[in-house]
Amino acid sequence: MSEIKSSQEALIPPVSRREFIATVGVGVASATVLTTGVMEAEPAAETLAHEPTEGSAHHVPISLWVNGTQYEIGVEPRWTLATVLRRELGMTGTKIVCDRGECGACTVIRNDQLIYSCMTLAVDCDRSRIETIEGVALKEKLHPLQQAFIDNDALQCGYCTPGMVMALKHLLDHQPRPALDDVKEACAGNLCRCGTYPNVFKAALEAAQKMR
Predict the structure, then answer these.
(1) For residue 104, which phi and psi values (nearest 5 degrees)?
(2) DSSP characters for 90-143?
(3) First vs last C-alpha separation in the chain
(4) pTM metric for this prediction
(5) What is the chain's pLDDT, residue by residue, as a tens digit (212 residues)?
(6) Domains of the chain (ranges, CATH numbers)
């Protein structure tokens, strides 16, 4: 076994820890705020039928309005909203990190309320209006909050960023003149393991000012 292992390793060029972090970290962060942010929602009048990826006799038909588009989809009763968004609808901007409702990376807006999509059953969201990170941008232009995240370097690994943006967008939608304490409270349920909170707070306050 040792000979096989060494021969396989010989085919892989050595990569330093610094090179790995620089390559993967920047790619994830950029994709989180930019790629998932500028996706334009399809016209609200369109209804899309979706076949589930796994064949099962236990699929329950539900209707979801996601970022302005209606989807008719069959789901298993055990599937969470996060799973349906990512696996069935291909909206991978919503992250599943802790999968137990502790980190907030899966935060989305349902019927104007913040929820952890990893702890919400998809069947309970039938006929709900869902907003995800893919629907935040204004057509081809980033939302002021997304732009402020970039300008203030408010992200590092990027895993928490979609949920953080959704939580703060919900705040700014309802409170256009938030104080610092309001911003802190709004994203208190979103865990950033990289410790970017000071820059996140700056970004939220800056976005609020620009939106006014």
Answers:
(1) 85, 5
(2) --TTS--SSSSSSS-TTEEEETTEEEEGGGSBGGGGTTEEEE-GGG-SBTTB--
(3) 65
(4) 0.75
(5) 444 333 334 334 455 544 544 444 444 444 445 444 433 444 444 666 666 655 555 899 999 999 999 999 999 999 999 999 999 999 999 999 999 999 999 999 999 999 999 999 999 999 999 999 999 998 889 999 999 999 999 999 999 999 999 999 999 999 999 999 999 999 999 999 999 999 999 999 999 999 98
(6) 47-135 (3.10.20.30), 144-211 (1.10.150.120)
Amino acid at 39: M
What Cα–Cα distance (Å) separates residue 72 from each residue in 7, 63, 156? 50, 5, 36
